[in-house]
Amino acid sequence: MFRIACRIVILAASNALAIYICTRIFPGVKFIGDWKSLAYLSLILAAINYFIKPVVGLILKPFIWLTLGILSIVINIIILKVAMYFMPGLTISTTLTLILVTFIISAINSFVVLAFGKS
Q1: Residue 99's closest CA among 69, 65, 76?
Q2: In the chain, where do the E strands start and end?
Q3: Per-residue confidence at 118, pLDDT binned at 50, 70, 90?
């Protein structure tokens, strides 16, 4: 249980960093709130990525293979949209910006997983 909590906290910190970086890079990404709101949003995103994304990925694995991984990008976009629904302080203006933000969050999370290990 402690490992799961540590992993979610580490993923939440990387999500907070990624969201902060995206608000600085892209003019279409706005976050209204304080650091507590950012922590709440990143915890939501980390929990969705830790608990729900593996189940969805397992169910859709054949389709992910058929689309050569493009469906996993769509899954990440949907996960970000769901997190934005629960935290209305984050707004992303265009679809292209949403795709780019998804790539940046995924890249930072991948780096963190490589740095801290999968388990």
Answers
A1: 76
A2: 29-31, 90-92
A3: low
